[in-house]
Design brief:
alpha+beta; two-stranded parallel ribbon; 3 helices; 42% helix; flat
Length: 77
């Protein structure tokens, strides 16, 4: 099985880069995608304080839809 992980920031990615190889054994594979995050869901999503810090949260519906459209994914699980 292949696992795709979406994390808020680079420090989360670095921690998972160390931990996951010890937890996920062969033949499973994984890939970690880090985004610039603020570490929390903003109270008002319409505030334009710093949109570059909401990349994952803003794009999450599109990313999940894309993962849902991968052909044959559920047949391999």
């Amino acid at each position: 099985m292949h696992i795709e992980l979406l994390v808020e920031d680079l420090s989360g990615k670095k921690a998972l880069d160390v931990l996951l190889p010890k937890m996920v054994l062969d033949p499973h594979t994984f890939r970690i995608h880090a985004y610039k995050g603020i570490g929390r869901i903003p109270r008002n999503m319409r505030d334009a304080q710093d949109p570059s810090k909401r990349i994952l949260l803003t794009n999450l519906p599109k990313l999940l839809k894309g993962y849902g459209n991968i052909q044959g994914l559920w047949n391999r699980l």
